[in-house]
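Title: Prediction job returns without error message
Component: structure pipeline
Severity: low
Priority: P3
Assignee: unassigned

Description:
Job completed but the reporter wants confirmation the result is attached to the right record. Sequence as submitted:
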Amino acid sequence: MAAAALAAVAVGRVYAQDTPADVTLGGEVVMRLRSSVGGMTPQQRVGAIEERLTRLLAIPGITPADVVVYTPAGKPPVVYAVGRRLIEVDKQTAISAGSSGEPLKLATGWAKRLQQLLPRVNWRPNNAPEPTVSENPPLTVTDDFSQVGGATGQVYLRDKLVATLRGPQPGGFTAAEYADVLGSRLNIISHRLGAGAADSIKTIDLSAYPVNGPSLVLMGERPVLIVEPTEAEAAQMASTDLLAQSWAKNLRKVLTVEGPIPPSS
């Protein structure tokens, strides 16, 4: 990732619990958190957002349309960027921020700031001009999860594409979010297994239990990829087992061609 992109994310470094903490992009404050939520202090919450933003900044070509406010029925609004969840804005957060206790109002304000800043600070080739962002671009506010973005997710092992996810994923993840999680898991497990990683890959066909069930890809006896029927259908594969075998083949190829990484001590 370009040094400029990494430097664009900064966090207000304050250490007293419940002291406000800022998330800034390009030297501008995007959001200020003043309350602890779920056992996390403002500083811890900002740290988590900083980590998510740092990953996002490596994605080229971010546009204002990539920022969305999701409003699930009966739940607080959530700000998404490039199909990844950034922050849930609950009532306590809104009250502490002084936005009349209106979570949607606060979420919308933060989203509009992200629309202005993310396209300008994310990664771009050297000497590429800073993109121009209109003063008030349209913002999508929706209760339809399929509209938050990230409908397709690419899973990478050692920077090589091994699987493509499509549609909503387990645990309320978008495909893009879940692909990030799986890619990290694959790289960690393959690193730990070292030279034995490629030989340890196998598939388990569970499609008959129940009928039209999933299939699994295992590495070192650990399930690393789950192929649901919806994934097989989207990939135009006749069964989950066939898609699982295809993904397993991709994993073996990467691990064989790239060679083993010695296991961590």
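Comment from assignee: result matches the submitted record. Confidence is low (pLDDT under 50) at residues 1-8, 10-17.
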